[in-house]
Here is the input.
Amino acid sequence: MKQLLFIIVFLMLGTAAAVQAQGEKVLTGPIAIADLLDLPNWFGEEYLKYQPDRRYLDRIPQFLTDVDVVCVLGTWCSDSRREVPRMIRIFQSQNLPPEKLQLIGVDHQKRSPNGEAAQYDVERVPTFIFIRKGKEIGRIVEAPLASLEKDMLGIIDPDAGKGEVIPPPPPPPNADDGAVIIDEAGQVQPRHPSDVEPGHEDPARPRHDADMQTK
Here is the structure.
């Protein structure tokens, strides 16, 4: 009787696992964008409502001419469902050649049937790998640090992350030129006419109307 009960429970659990496996459609190997359209929860708000920052977006095409992007993703992964449609929107909004974005699906163990993803040593998905002339120049793993378009531009354009050159601040006034004084705390402060004792004016210092009005 106990053995029969064990077998029944085993079959029930096995049936439940099979139903779960059938309900989760996992695409592996090379994937076309059209393949993702048939998946639930793909190309919803993440694609339609994503508005890339044009300050970075409009500069991407000029630096992508010699760069290919490989995206290793999991159709079962929430991060992939968020970031991959956004990347596709970036490509389509700039009319970038679709063949420059290669999609590779992996299972939960980050493997693809014919080993397409093995060469990229991916541990987390999605991973966007940027390749210039056969050499990897950078990657975005799981989620961007700032945004996809900004991180992407920072990888493909070597000068993108340097920012604007900020000029150094002007040097502090020289205490010897008579324009400043040293206060009791030892701090440099602008000299005001009231700080000069009568009869001790510097003859070399130009006299202004403000000075004359205090006399």
